[in-house]
């Protein structure tokens, strides 16, 4: 127990496992980070998700030398978490606020009604981010 917090070591274990799995496969890891972040951020608010994933990304970046191409993993995390929040009503706080405002104005939007359009927007947005990450990975 450190500073009143219980340390389970789960994040450290995940970070080491991810580092072992990536080992020289940085571009596939970048795509996995992007799409997994988008998917998970659709059901978990993006701030706690990014806070949880930051030590894992840090470990991956450091394992790849800390600079250069490995930095694209931070971009993949940020973009995936940000865009993934658009997929569902609970993916971002702003979505919940908008649903409340719409309901007060007499326009109820159901969770599934939101998700039907949110998923389409999210998949297209994340797919459009792939060329950007490709440029950051291969051109910089």
Give an overview of the whole structure:
The protein has helices at 10-22, 26-41, 46-63, 72-84, 93-104, 111-139. It is mainly alpha-helical. It has one domain (10-139). The longest helix is centred in the last third of the chain and has 29 residues, at 111-139. The mean pLDDT is 86. Keywords: Membrane, Transmembrane, Transmembrane helix, Transport. Its main location: membrane.
Write a compact overview of the structure shown.
The protein has helices at residues 10-22, 26-41, 46-63, 72-84, 93-104, 111-139. The protein is mostly helical and 140 residues long. The model has no long low-confidence stretch (mean pLDDT 86).
Topology:
Elements: H1 10-22, H2 26-41, H3 46-63, H4 72-84, H5 93-104, H6 111-139
Number of helices: 6
Number of domains: 1
What structural class should be given to the helix and strand makeup?
mainly alpha
Instruction: Report the major sheet.
Output: none
Q: Give me the count of strands.
A: 0
- Tell me, rounded to a whole number, the average pLDDT: 86
Shape descriptor reads elongated
Order of helices and strands: HHHHHH
Membrane topology: Multi-pass membrane protein
Protein name: Citrate transporter-like domain-containing protein
Transmembrane segments: 26-44, 72-102, 114-135
GO cellular component, one term: membrane
Keywords:
140 residues, mainly alpha, 6 helices, 72% helix, transport, membrane, transmembrane
């Amino acid at each position: 127990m450190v500073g009143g917090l219980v340390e389970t070591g789960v994040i450290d274990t995940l970070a080491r496992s991810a580092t072992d799995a990536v080992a020289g496969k940085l571009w596939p890891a970048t795509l996995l980070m992007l799409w997994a972040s988008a998917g998970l951020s659709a059901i978990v608010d993006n701030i706690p998700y990014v806070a949880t994933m930051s030590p894992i990304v840090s470990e991956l970046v450091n394992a790849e030398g800390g600079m250069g191409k490995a930095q694209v993993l931070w971009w993949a995390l940020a973009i995936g978490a940000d865009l993934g929040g658009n997929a569902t009503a609970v993916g971002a706080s702003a979505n919940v606020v908008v649903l409340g405002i719409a309901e007060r104005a007499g326009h109820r939007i159901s969770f599934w009604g939101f998700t039907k359009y949110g998923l389409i927007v999210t998949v297209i947005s994340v797919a459009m981010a792939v060329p950007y990450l490709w440029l950051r990975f291969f051109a910089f």
